[in-house]
Design brief:
Length: about 350
């Protein structure tokens, strides 16, 4: 939301802006100020640039955490338990479900998507490219690492996000936040030293996933503030362009389409159900990430992702089947979790 001073010579643009800003209120009300602050009130008394309330910040963070927790286990089951061979195809299904969901919501009047223009596409291209790479590396890490180690090694994205926000958004985290991030990274280092199931491919992939996670969150925040356009249109364009990009990758990679066609479990109804769930939850997670980043910050989105991974880490020790226990690794996990809890308290306390 961005407040605008009333200008009688620009009433037409003010009306269009009010319609655009109200779109996500119809879809998900926690991203907006409480009802009662209508356009008429804004005309009578221009409001200063407001920040989301504490309730909305926590609501957006919890929505993201629940959505992410659901999709990560669905992805793990599809890629590891059923050994589905193509992360690109799974990503394509998730991008497509997001694009179609927003288009249907627009047709039904719940979302007002702005007309697609060449300028709009150009402005979203960096975000879409980064987002696509983020999803692909994340799914690949899910294939190659146990859940406890995957979520632990993602802690490095927090430091990357913090540095990028300071450079690109001129954001300065508090001393408490900096100390909590240091604690999380220290715990991740200890756990990595005690990792008995070391996988070089998984470690390399998760490093790039950390980088793209940080870049995606910061670029998303910057795009929302710079262009001041419909947030749902940004998400729609992002998903659409990412779907086109991953489709090109699928066609260009030798043997990719054949591996998917020859997959032996297409007749297994349980696999199809999990694949459909993972695909649909992808659209929900995309919306949750967008709302959490816009309502809070890219750093908050990253750390909330680590907080929900507390549960993922502990469950993954017993359910994933590919985690090898060691006391040093277990100690590092708990140190990192302590840092996450300290950061969460510092973030939402005020």
């Amino acid at each position: 939301m961005h407040s605008r001073k009333h200008n009688p010579h620009k009433s037409k643009s003010h009306t269009m802006s009010a319609a655009v800003d109200s779109e996500t209120k119809q879809l998900l009300p926690l991203h907006h100020e409480a009802a009662g602050k209508g356009a008429g009130d804004a005309d009578q008394q221009p409001q200063p640039s407001s920040t989301p309330s504490r309730t909305k910040k926590i609501g957006a963070a919890l929505f993201y955490a629940a959505s992410s927790l659901s999709v990560i286990f669905a992805n793990k089951i599809v890629l590891s338990t059923y050994k589905f061979p193509s992360v690109q195809t799974l990503a394509l299904l998730q991008f497509t479900s997001t694009t179609l969901a927003l288009k249907v919501a627009s047709t039904l009047g719940y979302v007002n998507l702005l007309p697609i223009s060449v300028r709009g596409v150009k402005s979203i291209l960096p975000l879409s490219a980064c987002y696509l790479l983020n999803i692909l590396t994340g799914l690949s890490a899910t294939q190659n690492l146990s859940l406890p180690m995957m979520v632990l090694l993602r802690r490095a994205s927090i430091l990357m996000t913090m540095l990028l926000e300071k450079w690109m958004l001129n954001s300065q985290p508090s001393k408490t936040v900096q100390l909590s991030v240091g604690l999380m990274l220290g715990g991740a280092l200890v756990a990595a030293l005690g990792d008995l199931s070391f996988n070089l491919v998984g470690y390399v992939v998760i490093f790039f996933n950390d980088l793209f996670t940080a870049l995606n969150g910061v670029i998303l925040k910057r795009t929302s503030e710079e262009y001041k356009k419909s947030k749902m249109t940004v998400l729609y364009l992002n998903s659409l362009l990412s779907a086109i990009g991953v489709s090109i990758i699928i066609v260009m990679v030798p043997g990719e389409m054949k591996r998917v066609q020859n997959f032996t479990l297409w007749s297994d109804s349980s696999f199809v159900v999990y694949l459909a769930f993972a695909s649909l939850m992808g659209s929900v997670l995309n919306l949750a990430i967008f709302l959490c980043t816009s309502t809070n910050s890219a750093l908050t989105t990253t750390v909330v992702g680590c907080l929900k991974n507390v549960l993922t880490s502990y469950i993954g020790m017993f359910v994933g089947g590919d985690y090898i226990f060691s006391w040093l690794n277990f100690l590092g996990i708990n140190i990192s979790i302590a840092g996450s809890l300290i950061y969460a308290q510092a973030t939402f306390r005020g």
